[in-house]
From TrEMBL:
Pfam families, A to Z: AI-2E_transport
Record flagged with keyword Iron-sulfur: no
Entry keywords, A to Z: Membrane, Transmembrane, Transmembrane helix
Transmembrane segments: 7-28, 34-60, 72-93, 154-179, 220-237, 243-272, 279-302, 308-339
Membrane topology according to the record: Multi-pass membrane protein
Organism: Siminovitchia thermophila
Protein name listed in UniProt: PurR-regulated permease PerM
InterPro entries linked to this entry: AI-2E-like (IPR002549)
Compartments where located: Membrane
Sequence similarity: Belongs to the autoinducer-2 exporter (AI-2E) (TC 2.A.86) family.
Length: 356
């Protein structure tokens, strides 16, 4: 009897010490936060460069299989990828900043327009519960404050990229060396991993790469295509802020199922300020984009990379949204894919261990 009780007290003491250490760690936050910020900024180009190299590596491999020299293949993809991004940023960022500033200046007009709609609706309806009008007005006012702060942060973030020009400038070089020496990086990781974990780690990472790699690459390509098409179509119908809205469509489309609704809200909100006709055109474009994404782009580009039931994806999106807002929803599906692979890998490992 004493041994289980002693073990329980020991475990409780360990948990208590961990909580005390965490509390102490939070108390000294002013000391470690600046160091963590510097560390994150220093690691940013390596993380970004590694991620880009991970995205481009399969293309380099396919060019090698076609007989192209590895160095030539890397140089070709490197120039095409970063040259295209650089040229696009050179043309797009000034226009995007201009549209964002213009929109932030006209946010009060947007809010006043929807306030007037609420007043008209309230005047034509006598069955509204008491307090609903004031509640709606408070919601609209809070939205005005939020959207104003969000646009200021977004503009300052885009402009603030200039302050990190040196950090951003080294990303292409880091990505190039990752692509060039990726096999050496794999060997280094192999030898740094304890021997008893090597085979299992290799099987696990290979499974994650198969499940997650195709999904991430395909989803980013689909979002890029939808962003270009939506910006062009919004511009053709004369909708204000086409590049900004196209960027929103591309960004929110990363979120399965809910992304289309989230992206459509600002598009329709801005289109309604011009006319009902333009709002109908904008809605038609959004529906066309979703048809294109669901029936043409995703089946052929993304396919069934993660192969997870929609109910699990929706549950992960809800949990991610509650835990981390929009960013939580963006990361929910990739984390779910890794969790699925981890569960399957653990199950197979346990079955194999019992059989041997």
């Amino acid at each position: 009897m004493r041994e289980p009780r002693t073990r329980l007290l020991y475990q409780f003491g360990i948990i208590l010490i961990i909580f005390v250490l965490l509390y102490f760690f939070l108390l000294i936050k002013p000391l470690w936060k600046p160091l963590l910020t510097v560390l994150c900024i220093g690691m940013l180009p390596f993380v970004a460069g590694g991620f880009i190299a991970y995205l481009l590596y399969p293309i380099v491999g396919k060019l090698e299989l076609l007989g192209m020299n590895r160095a030539v293949a890397i140089s070709f993809i490197y120039i095409l990828f970063f040259g295209g991004i650089g040229y696009g940023l050179y043309l797009g960022i000034p226009v995007l900043i201009g549209q964002m500033r213009h929109f932030s200046e006209h946010v009060p007009e947007l809010v006043d327009y929807y306030k007037s709609l609420i007043r008209e609706l309230d005047a034509s309806t006598s069955r509204w519960p008491d307090g609903m009008k004031s509640e709606l007005m408070e919601r609209v006012d809070s939205f005005e404050v939020w959207i104003g702060q969000f646009m200021e942060k977004a503009i300052s973030s885009v402009v603030g990229l200039v302050n990190y020009v040196i950090v951003l400038a080294v990303i292409p070089f880091i990505s190039f060396y990752f692509l060039k020496d990726l096999e050496l990086v794999k060997k280094a990781a192999w030898y740094m991993t304890p021997k008893k974990w090597r085979n299992n780690a290799q099987v696990f990472l290979s499974a994650v790469n198969v499940s997650l790699g195709g999904y991430i690459r395909g989803q980013l390509l689909v979002c890029f295509i939808l962003g270009i098409i939506s910006s062009l179509l919004f511009w053709l119908i004369g909708l204000d802020y086409p590049i900004m809205l196209g960027l929103i469509i591309a960004f929110t489309n990363i979120i399965p199922y809910f992304g289309a609704v989230i992206g459509a809200v600002p598009v329709l909100a801005i289109a309604l300020m011009s006319s009902i006709k333009q709002a109908a055109f904008a809605l038609g474009i959004v529906m066309l984009l979703q048809f294109l994404e669901g029936n043409v782009l995703s089946p052929y580009i993304v396919g069934k990379s993660i192969n997870i039931h929609p109910l699990f994806i929706i549950a992960a999106l809800i949990i991610g949204g509650e835990a981390g807002g929009l960013w939580g929803m963006l990361l929910a599906v990739p984390l779910l894919a890794v969790l699925k692979v981890a569960i399957i890998h653990t199950r197979d490992y346990l079955i194999h261990s019992r059989s041997t």
